[in-house]
Amino acid sequence: MDFSLIVRSAAFLGAGICMGIGALGPGIGQGFVAGKACEGIARSPENSALLTRTMLLGQAVAESTGIYSLVIALLLIFTTG
Amino acid sequence: MMSKKTFFRLLLFFIVIQAILSFGIDYKLNIGLHPDTGKFSIWNSEYPMTIQDRIMEEFQPDEYFKAKGVTPTIYGSERLHGFFATFFGEKTLYAFELIRMLIIVNIVLLIIVYLVRKSIALIPTKKQIVFEMMYSFFEDLTRETLGKDKTHFTSYVLTIFIFIWSCNLIGLIPIPGFMEPTRNINVPFGMGILVVGVVHFMSLKHKGLTKYLKGYAEPFLPMAPINVVGELSKGISISFRLFGNVLGGAIILLVISSLVRFIILPVGLNMFFGLFIGTLQAFVFTMLAMSYIAVEIFD
Protein backbone atom coordinates (compact mmCIF):
# COMPACT_ATOMS: atom_id res chain seq x y z
CA MET A 1 0.00 0.00 0.00
CA ASP A 2 1.15 3.51 -0.75
CA PHE A 3 2.70 5.06 2.32
CA SER A 4 1.91 8.69 1.42
CA LEU A 5 -1.78 7.74 1.15
CA ILE A 6 -1.72 6.53 4.75
CA VAL A 7 -0.01 9.75 5.87
CA ARG A 8 -2.57 11.86 4.03
CA SER A 9 -5.57 10.02 5.40
CA ALA A 10 -4.08 10.20 8.89
CA ALA A 11 -3.66 13.96 8.47
CA PHE A 12 -7.29 14.41 7.41
CA LEU A 13 -8.46 12.24 10.30
CA GLY A 14 -6.28 14.24 12.66
CA ALA A 15 -7.72 17.51 11.37
CA GLY A 16 -11.27 16.27 11.96
CA ILE A 17 -10.50 15.03 15.47
CA CYS A 18 -8.61 18.26 16.22
CA MET A 19 -11.56 20.47 15.29
CA GLY A 20 -14.08 18.19 16.99
CA ILE A 21 -12.31 18.12 20.35
CA GLY A 22 -10.95 21.63 20.05
CA ALA A 23 -14.42 23.10 19.55
CA LEU A 24 -15.77 21.46 22.72
CA GLY A 25 -14.02 23.69 25.23
CA PRO A 26 -14.74 27.07 23.62
CA GLY A 27 -18.38 26.07 23.09
CA ILE A 28 -18.87 25.22 26.77
CA GLY A 29 -16.96 28.31 27.86
CA GLN A 30 -18.85 30.71 25.61
CA GLY A 31 -22.20 29.30 26.64
CA PHE A 32 -21.26 29.61 30.29
CA VAL A 33 -20.20 33.25 29.83
CA ALA A 34 -23.42 34.08 27.97
CA GLY A 35 -25.57 32.44 30.65
CA LYS A 36 -23.83 34.33 33.44
CA ALA A 37 -24.17 37.59 31.50
CA CYS A 38 -27.92 36.93 31.10
CA GLU A 39 -28.21 36.44 34.85
CA GLY A 40 -26.32 39.67 35.45
CA ILE A 41 -28.50 41.63 33.04
CA ALA A 42 -31.65 40.22 34.63
CA ARG A 43 -30.40 41.28 38.04
CA SER A 44 -29.33 44.80 37.03
CA PRO A 45 -30.72 45.88 33.63
CA GLU A 46 -29.14 49.35 33.88
CA ASN A 47 -25.66 47.83 33.43
CA SER A 48 -26.58 45.91 30.29
CA ALA A 49 -24.20 47.79 27.93
CA LEU A 50 -21.17 47.15 30.12
CA LEU A 51 -22.18 43.53 30.69
CA THR A 52 -22.67 42.88 26.98
CA ARG A 53 -19.29 44.37 26.17
CA THR A 54 -17.54 42.34 28.85
CA MET A 55 -19.38 39.22 27.72
CA LEU A 56 -18.25 39.65 24.12
CA LEU A 57 -14.65 40.22 25.25
CA GLY A 58 -14.70 37.16 27.47
CA GLN A 59 -16.19 35.03 24.72
CA ALA A 60 -13.55 36.17 22.27
CA VAL A 61 -10.81 35.26 24.74
CA ALA A 62 -12.42 31.87 25.38
CA GLU A 63 -12.59 31.33 21.63
CA SER A 64 -8.83 31.51 21.12
CA THR A 65 -8.15 27.83 21.86
CA GLY A 66 -10.73 26.92 19.21
CA ILE A 67 -8.94 29.22 16.79
CA TYR A 68 -5.63 27.51 17.56
CA SER A 69 -7.17 24.14 16.76
CA LEU A 70 -8.60 25.60 13.54
CA VAL A 71 -5.13 26.81 12.51
CA ILE A 72 -3.63 23.40 13.30
CA ALA A 73 -6.39 21.64 11.34
CA LEU A 74 -5.73 23.91 8.34
CA LEU A 75 -2.01 23.17 8.61
CA LEU A 76 -2.73 19.44 8.67
CA ILE A 77 -5.02 19.65 5.63
CA PHE A 78 -2.95 21.93 3.42
CA THR A 79 0.67 21.12 4.23
CA THR A 80 0.65 17.32 4.58
CA GLY A 81 0.94 14.94 1.68
CA MET B 1 -38.05 50.49 -4.36
CA MET B 2 -38.73 46.84 -5.03
CA SER B 3 -41.89 45.52 -3.38
CA LYS B 4 -41.87 42.40 -1.25
CA LYS B 5 -43.88 40.37 -3.75
CA THR B 6 -41.49 41.10 -6.61
CA PHE B 7 -38.52 40.25 -4.43
CA PHE B 8 -39.91 36.86 -3.48
CA ARG B 9 -40.85 36.13 -7.09
CA LEU B 10 -37.28 36.92 -8.12
CA LEU B 11 -35.98 34.71 -5.30
CA LEU B 12 -38.21 31.84 -6.42
CA PHE B 13 -37.08 32.34 -10.02
CA PHE B 14 -33.43 32.02 -9.08
CA ILE B 15 -34.04 29.01 -6.84
CA VAL B 16 -35.96 27.19 -9.60
CA ILE B 17 -33.24 27.97 -12.14
CA GLN B 18 -30.62 26.80 -9.68
CA ALA B 19 -32.51 23.57 -9.03
CA ILE B 20 -32.86 22.93 -12.78
CA LEU B 21 -29.28 23.69 -13.64
CA SER B 22 -27.48 22.09 -10.71
CA PHE B 23 -28.05 18.42 -11.40
CA GLY B 24 -24.46 17.52 -12.13
CA ILE B 25 -22.20 18.39 -9.22
CA ASP B 26 -19.33 19.34 -11.55
CA TYR B 27 -21.15 22.20 -13.24
CA LYS B 28 -21.06 25.89 -12.53
CA LEU B 29 -23.88 28.35 -13.04
CA ASN B 30 -23.02 31.56 -14.84
CA ILE B 31 -25.10 34.70 -15.22
CA GLY B 32 -23.94 37.44 -17.54
CA LEU B 33 -22.82 37.96 -21.10
CA HIS B 34 -22.38 34.63 -22.84
CA PRO B 35 -18.87 34.34 -24.29
CA ASP B 36 -20.04 32.65 -27.52
CA THR B 37 -23.21 34.54 -28.41
CA GLY B 38 -22.50 37.81 -26.64
CA LYS B 39 -26.01 38.03 -25.22
CA PHE B 40 -27.12 38.32 -21.61
CA SER B 41 -28.07 34.85 -20.49
CA ILE B 42 -27.84 32.14 -17.85
CA TRP B 43 -25.88 29.03 -18.73
CA ASN B 44 -23.94 26.09 -17.34
CA SER B 45 -20.26 25.57 -17.79
CA GLU B 46 -17.81 22.85 -16.82
CA TYR B 47 -16.59 23.19 -13.28
CA PRO B 48 -13.00 22.09 -13.62
CA MET B 49 -11.76 22.50 -10.07
CA THR B 50 -12.49 20.57 -6.88
CA ILE B 51 -13.20 22.51 -3.71
CA GLN B 52 -9.71 21.86 -2.38
CA ASP B 53 -8.21 23.26 -5.58
CA ARG B 54 -10.34 26.37 -5.20
CA ILE B 55 -9.21 26.86 -1.60
CA MET B 56 -5.59 26.34 -2.68
CA GLU B 57 -6.00 28.90 -5.46
CA GLU B 58 -7.59 31.39 -3.10
CA PHE B 59 -5.21 31.08 -0.17
CA GLN B 60 -1.91 29.83 -1.61
CA PRO B 61 -1.90 31.11 -5.22
CA ASP B 62 1.84 30.88 -5.70
CA GLU B 63 2.06 27.19 -4.78
CA TYR B 64 -1.13 26.41 -6.70
CA PHE B 65 -0.09 27.99 -10.00
CA LYS B 66 3.39 26.51 -9.71
CA ALA B 67 2.02 23.02 -9.11
CA LYS B 68 -0.60 23.19 -11.87
CA GLY B 69 1.55 25.00 -14.40
CA VAL B 70 -1.22 27.47 -15.27
CA THR B 71 -0.62 31.13 -15.99
CA PRO B 72 -2.21 33.04 -13.12
CA THR B 73 -4.84 35.73 -13.51
CA ILE B 74 -3.47 38.90 -11.97
CA TYR B 75 -5.90 41.35 -10.41
CA GLY B 76 -4.63 44.88 -10.82
CA SER B 77 -1.84 46.18 -12.98
CA GLU B 78 0.29 43.55 -14.70
CA ARG B 79 3.14 45.98 -15.23
CA LEU B 80 3.24 46.68 -11.51
CA HIS B 81 3.33 42.94 -10.81
CA GLY B 82 6.19 42.51 -13.27
CA PHE B 83 8.04 45.33 -11.53
CA PHE B 84 7.40 43.55 -8.25
CA ALA B 85 8.62 40.21 -9.55
CA THR B 86 11.96 41.62 -10.67
CA PHE B 87 12.72 42.56 -7.08
CA PHE B 88 11.24 39.70 -5.07
CA GLY B 89 11.49 36.69 -7.37
CA GLU B 90 8.84 34.22 -8.47
CA LYS B 91 6.63 33.68 -5.45
CA THR B 92 5.11 37.12 -5.24
CA LEU B 93 1.50 36.81 -6.38
CA TYR B 94 -0.04 36.60 -2.92
CA ALA B 95 2.22 39.33 -1.55
CA PHE B 96 1.30 41.55 -4.51
CA GLU B 97 -2.44 41.08 -3.92
CA LEU B 98 -1.98 41.69 -0.20
CA ILE B 99 -0.04 44.92 -0.67
CA ARG B 100 -2.55 46.06 -3.30
CA MET B 101 -5.41 45.52 -0.86
CA LEU B 102 -3.52 47.31 1.93
CA ILE B 103 -2.92 50.29 -0.34
CA ILE B 104 -6.62 50.35 -1.30
CA VAL B 105 -7.60 50.31 2.39
CA ASN B 106 -5.22 53.16 3.11
CA ILE B 107 -6.51 55.22 0.19
CA VAL B 108 -10.09 54.71 1.38
CA LEU B 109 -9.10 55.83 4.87
CA LEU B 110 -7.33 58.91 3.50
CA ILE B 111 -10.38 59.84 1.42
CA ILE B 112 -12.60 59.51 4.50
CA VAL B 113 -10.22 61.69 6.51
CA TYR B 114 -10.24 64.33 3.77
CA LEU B 115 -14.05 64.33 3.46
CA VAL B 116 -14.58 64.54 7.22
CA ARG B 117 -11.99 67.23 7.84
CA LYS B 118 -13.25 69.35 4.97
CA SER B 119 -16.73 69.62 6.44
CA ILE B 120 -15.68 70.23 10.05
CA ALA B 121 -17.72 72.97 11.72
CA LEU B 122 -19.09 74.17 15.04
CA ILE B 123 -22.60 73.08 14.09
CA PRO B 124 -21.85 69.50 13.04
CA THR B 125 -23.02 67.89 9.83
CA LYS B 126 -24.15 64.26 9.68
CA LYS B 127 -20.72 62.86 8.79
CA GLN B 128 -19.12 64.78 11.62
CA ILE B 129 -21.73 63.52 14.10
CA VAL B 130 -21.02 59.90 13.16
CA PHE B 131 -17.29 60.28 13.65
CA GLU B 132 -17.67 62.32 16.82
CA MET B 133 -19.90 59.61 18.25
CA MET B 134 -17.26 57.02 17.41
CA TYR B 135 -14.53 59.12 18.99
CA SER B 136 -16.49 59.83 22.17
CA PHE B 137 -17.43 56.16 22.52
CA PHE B 138 -13.78 55.16 22.43
CA GLU B 139 -12.83 58.06 24.69
CA ASP B 140 -15.28 56.80 27.31
CA LEU B 141 -13.90 53.30 26.89
CA THR B 142 -10.33 54.52 27.34
CA ARG B 143 -11.31 56.54 30.39
CA GLU B 144 -12.98 53.52 31.96
CA THR B 145 -10.12 51.14 31.19
CA LEU B 146 -6.97 53.22 31.55
CA GLY B 147 -7.97 56.01 33.93
CA LYS B 148 -8.87 59.67 33.70
CA ASP B 149 -5.40 61.02 32.87
CA LYS B 150 -4.78 58.56 30.00
CA THR B 151 -7.38 59.78 27.48
CA HIS B 152 -4.61 60.66 25.01
CA PHE B 153 -4.55 56.93 24.18
CA THR B 154 -7.84 57.37 22.35
CA SER B 155 -6.18 58.23 19.05
CA TYR B 156 -3.99 55.11 19.14
CA VAL B 157 -6.89 52.86 20.06
CA LEU B 158 -9.26 54.39 17.52
CA THR B 159 -6.64 54.12 14.77
CA ILE B 160 -6.18 50.40 15.44
CA PHE B 161 -9.94 49.88 15.46
CA ILE B 162 -10.66 51.79 12.25
CA PHE B 163 -7.77 50.16 10.38
CA ILE B 164 -8.73 46.59 11.30
CA TRP B 165 -12.41 47.32 10.82
CA SER B 166 -11.96 48.64 7.30
CA CYS B 167 -9.56 45.76 6.55
CA ASN B 168 -12.32 43.32 7.55
CA LEU B 169 -15.11 45.18 5.77
CA ILE B 170 -13.35 45.59 2.42
CA GLY B 171 -13.85 41.88 1.76
CA LEU B 172 -17.59 42.57 1.48
CA ILE B 173 -17.18 44.46 -1.79
CA PRO B 174 -17.93 41.95 -4.56
CA ILE B 175 -15.10 42.78 -6.96
CA PRO B 176 -12.82 39.93 -8.17
CA GLY B 177 -9.55 40.00 -6.32
CA PHE B 178 -10.82 41.95 -3.33
CA MET B 179 -9.94 40.17 -0.10
CA GLU B 180 -9.47 41.03 3.53
CA PRO B 181 -5.82 41.91 4.16
CA THR B 182 -6.24 40.43 7.65
CA ARG B 183 -6.68 37.05 5.96
CA ASN B 184 -2.90 36.86 5.60
CA ILE B 185 -1.06 36.10 8.84
CA ASN B 186 1.48 38.87 8.27
CA VAL B 187 -0.96 41.77 8.76
CA PRO B 188 -2.40 40.66 12.14
CA PHE B 189 1.07 39.62 13.25
CA GLY B 190 2.44 43.06 12.44
CA MET B 191 -0.41 44.63 14.42
CA GLY B 192 0.34 42.23 17.30
CA ILE B 193 4.02 43.27 17.29
CA LEU B 194 2.90 46.92 17.39
CA VAL B 195 0.60 46.23 20.35
CA VAL B 196 3.26 44.33 22.31
CA GLY B 197 5.81 47.07 21.55
CA VAL B 198 3.49 49.79 22.88
CA VAL B 199 2.71 47.70 25.97
CA HIS B 200 6.39 47.24 26.81
CA PHE B 201 7.22 50.87 26.12
CA MET B 202 4.44 51.99 28.47
CA SER B 203 5.61 49.52 31.10
CA LEU B 204 9.19 50.85 30.86
CA LYS B 205 7.97 54.44 31.01
CA HIS B 206 5.65 53.85 33.92
CA LYS B 207 7.72 51.55 36.13
CA GLY B 208 11.30 52.49 35.32
CA LEU B 209 14.05 50.13 34.13
CA THR B 210 14.88 48.29 37.36
CA LYS B 211 11.27 47.58 38.29
CA TYR B 212 10.55 46.52 34.69
CA LEU B 213 13.42 44.02 34.74
CA LYS B 214 12.42 42.85 38.20
CA GLY B 215 8.97 42.04 36.82
CA TYR B 216 10.47 39.19 34.80
CA ALA B 217 11.81 37.43 37.90
CA GLU B 218 8.36 37.55 39.42
CA PRO B 219 8.00 34.70 41.92
CA PHE B 220 11.72 33.87 41.75
CA LEU B 221 14.54 34.13 39.24
CA PRO B 222 14.45 30.69 37.48
CA MET B 223 10.91 31.51 36.28
CA ALA B 224 12.27 34.22 33.96
CA PRO B 225 12.12 32.15 30.69
CA ILE B 226 8.49 31.29 31.35
CA ASN B 227 7.67 34.95 31.91
CA VAL B 228 9.38 35.86 28.62
CA VAL B 229 7.31 33.20 26.82
CA GLY B 230 4.20 34.57 28.49
CA GLU B 231 4.97 38.07 27.22
CA LEU B 232 5.54 36.75 23.67
CA SER B 233 2.33 34.72 23.73
CA LYS B 234 0.36 37.95 24.23
CA GLY B 235 1.23 39.07 20.72
CA ILE B 236 0.77 35.61 19.23
CA SER B 237 -2.66 35.04 20.77
CA ILE B 238 -3.99 38.50 19.87
CA SER B 239 -2.88 38.18 16.24
CA PHE B 240 -3.87 34.54 15.73
CA ARG B 241 -7.37 35.27 17.04
CA LEU B 242 -7.99 37.88 14.35
CA PHE B 243 -6.30 35.81 11.64
CA GLY B 244 -8.13 32.59 12.47
CA ASN B 245 -11.53 34.23 12.59
CA VAL B 246 -11.15 36.02 9.26
CA LEU B 247 -9.53 33.03 7.49
CA GLY B 248 -12.05 30.55 8.87
CA GLY B 249 -14.91 32.78 7.75
CA ALA B 250 -13.39 33.12 4.28
CA ILE B 251 -12.93 29.35 3.88
CA ILE B 252 -16.47 28.58 5.09
CA LEU B 253 -17.79 31.21 2.67
CA LEU B 254 -15.83 29.71 -0.24
CA VAL B 255 -16.93 26.13 0.48
CA ILE B 256 -20.61 27.02 0.92
CA SER B 257 -20.53 29.25 -2.16
CA SER B 258 -19.17 26.33 -4.18
CA LEU B 259 -21.88 24.04 -2.83
CA VAL B 260 -24.81 26.37 -3.60
CA ARG B 261 -23.42 27.75 -6.90
CA PHE B 262 -22.87 31.29 -5.60
CA ILE B 263 -26.61 32.07 -5.29
CA ILE B 264 -28.46 33.86 -2.45
CA LEU B 265 -27.06 32.04 0.60
CA PRO B 266 -23.52 33.46 0.37
CA VAL B 267 -24.92 37.00 0.64
CA GLY B 268 -26.30 36.42 4.12
CA LEU B 269 -23.23 34.49 5.18
CA ASN B 270 -21.04 37.28 3.86
CA MET B 271 -23.00 39.75 5.97
CA PHE B 272 -22.51 37.55 9.03
CA PHE B 273 -18.80 36.90 8.57
CA GLY B 274 -17.91 40.29 7.18
CA LEU B 275 -20.05 42.69 9.19
CA PHE B 276 -20.69 40.90 12.48
CA ILE B 277 -17.50 38.88 12.97
CA GLY B 278 -15.36 41.60 11.38
CA THR B 279 -16.67 44.35 13.65
CA LEU B 280 -16.56 42.11 16.71
CA GLN B 281 -12.99 40.99 16.12
CA ALA B 282 -11.76 44.53 15.46
CA PHE B 283 -13.42 45.62 18.71
CA VAL B 284 -11.96 42.68 20.63
CA PHE B 285 -8.49 43.42 19.25
CA THR B 286 -8.64 47.04 20.44
CA MET B 287 -10.12 46.09 23.83
CA LEU B 288 -7.35 43.54 24.39
CA ALA B 289 -4.68 46.02 23.30
CA MET B 290 -6.10 48.46 25.84
CA SER B 291 -6.39 45.95 28.67
CA TYR B 292 -2.78 44.79 28.15
CA ILE B 293 -1.69 48.39 28.71
CA ALA B 294 -4.01 48.65 31.72
CA VAL B 295 -2.42 45.57 33.31
CA GLU B 296 1.02 47.18 33.02
CA ILE B 297 -0.09 50.59 34.30
CA PHE B 298 -2.10 49.51 37.37
CA ASP B 299 -0.05 47.33 39.65
Rough outline of chain A: rod-shaped
Query: CATH-wise, what's the superfamily of the domain at 33-81 in chain A?
Result: F1F0 ATP synthase subunit C
Helix segment tally of chain B: 11
Q: Mind telling me the C-alpha Rg of chain B?
A: 24 Å
Averaged pLDDT of chain A: 88
Mean pLDDT of chain B: 82
- Name the largest protein-protein interface in this structure: A-B, 13 and 19 residues
Helix content of chain A: over 70%
Distance between the termini of chain B: 58 Å
Low-confidence stretches of chain B: none
How would a crystallographer describe the biggest sheet of chain B?
Answer: 2 strands, antiparallel
* β-strand number of chain B: 2
Q: How many individual β-strands of chain A?
A: 0
Going by helix content, strand content and strand pairing, the class of chain B is mainly alpha
Could you give a short description of this structure?
The complex is a heterodimer of chains A (81) and B (299). Chain A is mostly helical.
